[in-house]
Amino acid sequence: MKPFEGRVALITGASGGIGTALAARLAEAGADLALAYAGHREDAARAAAEVDVKTLLLQGDLADPAVPERLVERTRDELGAVDIVIANAGIGKQLNWDEVDTGTWDATMAVNTRAPFLLARAALPAMVERGWGRLLFVSSIAALNGGLVGPHYAASKAALHGLTHHLAPRVAGNGVT
Question: Which stretches in the chain have pLDDT values below 50?
Answer without folding.
Answer: none
